Every structure is written in C-alpha cells, then in structure tokens.
C-alpha cells in the first residue's frame, strides 16, 4: 500500500514523499495529511483529479487520512491533489500539488468517474452543526437562513471544478434544509433566551418584564460567573406570568446580579 504524506502550512500544500502508485488501484492507496493550527476546527475534504471535469472528493477521517478515490487515478498520468475545509460559513483552500500515476498491469478504464458523495456529506455535516447551534439557543431562525444562503453561495464556487450534476445534488440538499429551517423556526418560537438581564431583589423578590413570557412558560435562570457566586448561596425560584417573570430568593441579596433566562413556551 502506498501512502502519500502531505503537509499543510496555512494554505501551502507540500507532498513529503513520492510513492509509486499504479493506475487501476481501488480502495488501496491513501493520503495522510498534517495540518498546522490554521486548519483547527475545519471539516477537511481532499480533492483529487486528473481532469477537471472529473473531480473526486474524500472527507478526511479523525486521523486526517483518506483513501484516494479510484476514479482519480484510473489511468497513467499526473494526478492533482488539494484540500479544502469548511467551518461555519468560512472556507479554507490549499494550493494544488501533482503526483505521477504509473501505468498499471490492469486498466482503470472501467472505474466510474462520477464524483463521489463525500463532499456532500461534509456539507450536510456543516448544516447539521448549524442546526445544533440553534438547538443550544445560540442562533435565530433568521440567522439560520442567512447561514444557509451563504453556504449555498460558497458551494456554487465549486463549479470552478465543473463537477457533473453538482447543482442537482445541491438542490436536493436545499430541499432537506428547508425542512430543517421549518423545524428550527418551530424550536425558536417555543424556546427563547433573554440575555444579560439585570436582577435586583427588593424584599427578596425581583420582577422581570418581557412580552415573550406567558403564564404557562417554563423558565430557567443562568447567572454569569460573578453573579453565580452570590446566587448560589440562595434558593432562587422563577415563576412565570403573562408578560413577566417573578424571581423569589430565600435570602436577602443586596447586589445587582446579571442572568440569562431561558423561556420555554408551550
């Protein structure tokens, strides 16, 4: 088995060794990538092709290794290697390097040259992370739509590789994401965070007015680091009413605290 060792310093891709690879190999030869800190947090996908009309992709595993797609080395000649990463709405691309593919004992002409689906798995994973962010109350439905639009614009740039049927596959993904958007909107309509709320107790009671609160809402109060040291000495109970929350403390708290309040509406 041949393994190509590749080093990434920022966007500069350098092949560290020149293994002999023969055309016609299938699920055998690999690439191992080493990245500097510039790539931290990115979902990384390797790019391989002999002809730009037939670009092949492989998502790197947790060890930053991938199998070279057979369709990218189906015949003797030069194979181009690159990598790109996706993190939130950012994309990071490397330079390209080439490696020689020697003529093998059997022909690779029968190998399919259709682009692999791994890149689309990376895209879906990216969308899934956005959805998970929303589930953790770190975004809004409108922000989700903006991120999806930016991601689609980013993916359209992949047309530079002239990948066959790319837009058709993106349309299928977009249809799925419309369903995700509807779910996200429902989540955000029911679960809302009121951030950086000043909490001042008078006679052990603090009233916080906000129109998003209903009488049947469930409320959780999360104090910042400074406030938590004080609030942890007391039992603080939130009770929701139409248009406001009433916090009751078991002890007198003289300092003004700061909290984020999660409101879950039925």
Tell me about this structure.
The chain is of the alpha+beta class and 266 residues long. The chain has 3 domains: 3-111, Immunoglobulin-like (Sandwich); 122-189; 200-264, no CATH class. The chain contains 4 helices and 16 strands. The protein has helices at residues 118-135, 141-156, 166-190, 225-231, and strands at residues 3-9, 12-15, 21-22, 30-35, 43-49, 56-59, 65-67, 77-87, 90-93, 97-102, 191-199, 205-209, 218-223, 236-241, 244-249, 257-264. Strands 3, 5, 6, 8, 9 and 10 form a 6-stranded mixed β-sheet that branches. Strand 14 (236-241) and strand 15 form a beta hairpin. Helix 1 runs parallel beside helix 3 (166-190) and helix 2 (141-156) runs antiparallel to helix 3. The longest helix has 25 residues, at 166-190. It is elongated, with a radius of gyration of 26 Å. 29% of the residues are buried. Mean pLDDT is 77; it is low at 159-164.
Order of helices and strands: EEEEEEEEEEHHHEEEHEEE
Give the DSSP E fraction (strand runs of 2 or more residues).
35-45%
Helical fraction equals: 10-25%
Please give the CATH architecture of the largest domain: Sandwich
Instruction: Give the low-pLDDT segments.
Output: 159-164
Oligomer: single chain
Provide the structure class: alpha+beta
- Radius of gyration using CA atoms only: 26 Å
Return the CATH topology of the largest domain. Answer: Immunoglobulin-like
User: How can the largest sheet be summarized?
Assistant: 6 strands, mixed
